[in-house]
Amino acid sequence: MTHKFLSIISLLTRIPIKLSHEPDYSSSALFFPLTGLLLSIVIFLPALLFSLIIRTPLLLTFIILISQYLTANLFHLDGLMDTADASGVFGSKEKRYEVLKDSRIGVYGFFAGTAILGGKFLVTYLLVSNSILDTWASYMLAMAFSRYASILITNFAQPVNQSGLAVQLGKPSVFNATISVIACSLLPLILFMRNGNILAASISFFLTGVSAVLTAGYLSTWYAKNIGGYNGDAMGAVIELTELFSLIGTCIVFN
Hints:
Layout: H1 2-12, H2 28-51, H3 57-87, H4 93-100, H5 107-130, H6 132-156, H7 165-169, H8 174-184, H9 186-192, H10 198-226, H11 232-254
């Protein structure tokens, strides 16, 4: 079981992990949301420590995003930008897939990357200005559900080809993933409710779940129609978008 967990961590993060043998993704349904939760704890440690001596929301926001993207999200961002470039192509599925796999960044990808980073920076700044602990809880919820959304993608669509990450993952159990993400939500919900904000916590949980399902549903449909199936870029894109939508929802609820 430890090897399966480490396999998922090595897949979803930039943390260097030396596996004893070939990666095993058979328990991805359970470990995807858990990895998201653990990542949110790791990336917030520097911000929480700095918050003891620095009260500047702007600097804390910068620390949070730098920690997140250097630890895990850079290649998820790359998947979003590749998806955006492919969406700007008018032509056949083959032509869109060719653009999707092109390592160069086009104007659509640049715009999407700038928009997602700018949006996250703004909403994180608003959350930090209100409460660093609520911000932490918001990221826990967003990062667990965003990885859950990537599991949904694998069940909503077929892989675009018969090689690569999509085929290795197969179709993880949505039921197991749902149980896992609900369990992972307990800690952020407890943090949200520490001041009696039971209704706000419940609404945030609901909005995050809805954003994960709708974003995964839309992207899987778009990929099936325009690419011929999903790949790792789709999973990266759904992680980035679900995180943003979740943070926006929580920000609206608590502000």
